[in-house]
Amino acid sequence: MDFNSAVENAYAVGDPRNVVSVGVMGTARIARSHLWGIQGLEGVKVHAVASRSIEKANAFADEFGIPTRYGKYEDLLKDDKIDAVYIPLPSSLHLEWVVKAAKCNKHVLLEKPCAWNSDELLTMLETCRENKVKFMDTVFFMHHSRLKQISQQLANASLGPDGPTHVLSTFCFRGDESFFQNNIRVAAGLDKLGCLGDLAWYSIRIALFAFNWDLPETVSATYVIEKDGVPFDMNGSMLWKSKAVDGCGIPIVRSTMFHCSFVHAWQEDVLISGQDGTLAFEDFVIPRSTSHAPWFIRTNIDQTRKPSGMEWSFNQSEHNVGETKQERQLWQAFRNHVLNEDNKGAFWPGISLLTQLCVDALHQSAANHGAQTVVDPGHLWEKFTKLYNI
Amino acid sequence: MDFNSAVENAYAVGDPRNVVSVGVMGTARIARSHLWGIQGLEGVKVHAVASRSIEKANAFADEFGIPTRYGKYEDLLKDDKIDAVYIPLPSSLHLEWVVKAAKCNKHVLLEKPCAWNSDELLTMLETCRENKVKFMDTVFFMHHSRLKQISQQLANASLGPDGPTHVLSTFCFRGDESFFQNNIRVAAGLDKLGCLGDLAWYSIRIALFAFNWDLPETVSATYVIEKDGVPFDMNGSMLWKSKAVDGCGIPIVRSTMFHCSFVHAWQEDVLISGQDGTLAFEDFVIPRSTSHAPWFIRTNIDQTRKPSGMEWSFNQSEHNVGETKQERQLWQAFRNHVLNEDNKGAFWPGISLLTQLCVDALHQSAANHGAQTVVDPGHLWEKFTKLYNI
């Protein structure tokens, strides 16, 4: 698949004089993190918020100084002062409300997981395309300045002549009693994909990023703990086979492995490996600090036999970006996406669909006791590329 | 299985006045690391070395000041000045030479992987037991002072009320052209288990350690790259199910996930997680330094919503042991094992067999395209417990 031109266009900057007016559909905790993070951001104005409860809408609007409040999502969609909507609803409601929003000519910023499956997501994207509105999901780290630095580093072969060939990631947090009783992310009728949709979405995305947005060939997943079919703890792996061989004649097979869980202490490590070096950072989803985001490269790794025993050594270089507010960076990117020409909008919906295709296959593998499962983009990816002329 | 009394006896100290006289069967690179590491060690005397090539035996003996040299392994086994043998031969030769050594009343220190499968290993252990000789494999980290500290830490519930529930590990190195052409570890007829036997042996072992030597219930493995059936790059996972639930009513399922490969840059990270905290170190197989071995605990992990965006924070404590020479510690432990009473010898062969049972199931899963595979100790573990009266 030739996705390169889409990537190049993804970061085009919209006309700075234009302001995008946004409506927020829902008052979930994650919406508060977004709104908190983008206060005072130029070029984006949050014009309205809607909730099924007008009281909740009012409280949310008061907290963030939002002028307009609605007690029904439909009413917000009819507001012609609004250019775009941000949808933090449970994934069970995504298909319905993305389609309705697109039909009301609103651009869509959608919480992950985008959909319960790729068929649903493609229906959303088709409707967006028919109505000439843009689509993006809310993976913050895609917009963090660190990722652009790392992208350049991976391209320069410092990890080895064949670039990165393995991505290990872990993203876990420990839910409390209230989380397991009430949160949408563990309820079969709301976010039935559990930690696969909520956490592995990031692990899949970082691997797709490291491997230039190629789709894996096969995946495998195990639901370590599940309840009513919703995974609470899982591990997964994905393989990118190829016909290429490395300098020693060994087949090059890129792969990723990840652990994602609602029942383990917070962790969000990434380790990207090539033949000759590794690249690591320990806060890939939510940075430890908004003022300092380090990442590390190890090369020239060697073993030494000393009289006291074996040791190993390496050169480690620390890199970092200074102050970075990834919430603001995401919303700036969304604004640019909205303001850009219509024919430059394939990248963001494209990576959502690639991620969702992996989710589908991982879920299928887990249902099949972890057996290797072929990721078959089949008609879905073909439809997407036609839709976006890529 | 009640393995606790065996664990308690594992570290009993032999009479300090006795010296164990050792014969080395083979001159492989790993043997040189051992001999280099134990020079001047009290209580162990390397009396002889054997190689199929007397020239190699002479060169090795000259380098390490070993008085006796043999051009045949059989001749070394007939030397009645020798109490114990160290066997660094390819795993294809382990069954033959461990059985012959035991029948010559030599205690056995065996390179990993112990065997091609658990049936072979049990045959070795039966012969050792019949001839009243001890058995131990060569996993250095088991003897490193750090592991005893960590064992105490894991027992005190600092990672959470249910103790450690996940172990993530990675152990990789990048072989060069000569490795892939000549090394026994990638040759189907010599070490056919490849990176499963050579590297995952450590990943399995550290998980068994963290989970109190319980055997997992199911495993899954994928051979990412293999050649002539020998895995060069693999990932694996193992699950310990239980009927217990945690404080939120969620089933407690302990698990491990690991990546082991001959084609990626050196890495040997361990991350042990509970509900409330994590324990990490980045050099679990070969320490970065013999003078300083750190490990880290993170607790009180929290997210903070700042005006600049989300951040997360934790308390991290650094622990470490000072100078530690794990090669010497392994050989001291082997000496103690040899000198101890005959009825206190179950722990070391027991953990070898537990590791090998996991290897068997992982290999079976990989052959079955990664499907969840039940680890069935069946008659093998039962035979072992009868053999050692545990």
TrEMBL record, chains A, B:
Source species, domain of life: Eukaryota
Any one Gene Ontology molecular-function term assigned to this protein's record: nucleotide binding
Domain Gfo/Idh/MocA-like oxidoreductase N-terminal: 21-136
Pfam families on file: GFO_IDH_MocA (PF01408)
Name of the featured protein: Gfo/Idh/MocA-like oxidoreductase N-terminal domain-containing protein
Originating species: Mucochytrium quahogii
